[in-house]
Specification:
Length: about 290
């Protein structure tokens, strides 16, 4: 990503250098004209403004800022996650609109699917988190996602819930193309982490009540609940998904997929075969559906 950041600095510098230089020259000429001919009270002001224009345009904007941004690389665009979630997103150049128009007919029968993804992938600065994920999940159905690395499944679930932006591929949740509509996805989906939640039943009940897509990280933790709490959690899932209103996407480790699938189907909860994702590219598909 450092190379991409440096290319962005170079292209920005190349595109704005002529405008900045021309504007600075005009403003300097205007203010400098008052130095020899202006009123005595205006001469110091004109000198200060003319000097400030030269300093700002040629030293700060044309030298220091590009140099610092090149040294920082991708970190120059770093923003705290809590602040990024609260700031509004403005598509000034219309890239999201162009993408919406280009993918208006993708996928076929889009109204059938609560989640549709093609070649979805996510990279961070050190490694590939997941790659090549293809999904077609009908509204009201359930999907179980598994991977050797639990961070990969958690990242995929966060992406589907609009909490994380993918770095490649296509993703659409009920009629909305992500990441351009991540704000909508966050409002209409619920992310429940059974592994870290102090009150899993409360969080599950709240998510099923307000969201059309419920994403559950670590659904295998149901087996660790007391029998009474487990039955209550399964009843909540059955009630929420039974009328076809709620689409369920959950994660579990590969070792618990078979037992967990039998548990959910035994509770009359519709669940598709497990989608196994990988974090490295291969010659064949990197996302495979296993029974």
């Amino acid at each position: 990503r450092r190379e991409v950041a440096i290319d962005a600095v170079r292209s920005g510098y190349t595109g704005s250098a002529c405008v900045v230089t021309a504007a600075a020259t005009i403003m300097f000429a205007v203010f400098a004209a008052f130095i020899p001919e202006g009123d005595s009270s205006l001469k110091p002001i004109a000198l200060g403004l003319a000097s400030g224009i030269l300093f700002d345009a040629f030293l700060v904007r044309m030298t220091l800022v590009p140099a610092v941004m090149a040294l920082l690389g991708a970190h120059a665009w770093w923003m705290p996650r809590w602040l990024g979630k609260r700031l509004p997103h403005f598509d000034i150049e219309g890239e999201a609109v162009e993408r919406e128009i280009a993918l208006a007919d993708w996928p076929d029968d889009a109204d059938r699917y609560a989640v549709a993804a093609d070649a979805l992938e996510l990279d961070d600065e050190r490694r590939r988190v997941y790659t090549g994920v293809d999904v077609r999940l009908a509204t009201g159905d359930g999907l179980l996602v598994t991977a050797e690395d639990p961070r990969a499944t958690r990242a995929l679930l966060l992406t589907i819930a609009g909490r994380l932006e993918s770095t490649g591929g296509r993703l659409r949740v009920p009629g909305h193309l992500l990441p351009g509509r991540n704000a909508w996805a966050r409002r209409h989906s619920a992310f429940v982490s059974l592994g870290t939640s102090e009150a899993p039943l409360t969080d599950l009940r709240r998510g099923l009540r307000r969201a059309s897509i419920v994403v559950i990280d670590g659904i295998d933790r149901l087996e660790r609940l007391t029998p009474a709490d487990r039955d209550q959690a399964l009843a909540l899932l059955r009630e929420g998904a039974g009328d076809g209103r709620v689409t369920l996407v959950a994660s579990a480790p590969p070792t618990s997929v078979d037992d967990l699938g039998a548990l959910l189907r035994g509770a009359r909860i519709s669940i598709a075969p497990a989608l196994r994702i990988r974090t490295t590219l291969s010659a064949s598909d990197v996302a495979e559906v296993t029974a």
